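Q: Could you fold this chain for me?
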Amino acid sequence: MYNMSMSFIKKNLARSLFQLILMAFLVVAPIISFADNTNCDPATGKICNPIKTDSLNGLIKNLLEGVLKVGMPIVALAIIYCGFLFVSARGNTEKLTKAKDALLYTLIGAAILLGSWAIAQLISETVLSLQE
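A: Sure. Below is the predicted structure, expressed as structure tokens.
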């Protein structure tokens, strides 16, 4: 009993650690991809802004653009995978239900991804129009 529970814990710990590393990469990669050190001079001790923005509005815009650049290819691959699930179901109602659920969740994820960008654009334009 003890060995079974330890192997279960080790397996889940490894999976959780992998998921944590993957999520950290998905958050950090877009930030790093927007890094720009052209105005940086480390010899003078000047601290440079790696995100190329001076406002919260620009930061959110850069983060969402990075998430979209990473997320949209993932959505495309997920839709292709859902198509594979439909083809491999071959009329099996259980597998068809699984494929339909996967497609539904993929489309919901894509809607959330694009919706967050649209809402951020809407809020950004509203705030900018109020400042004038």
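A (continued): The mean pLDDT is 79.
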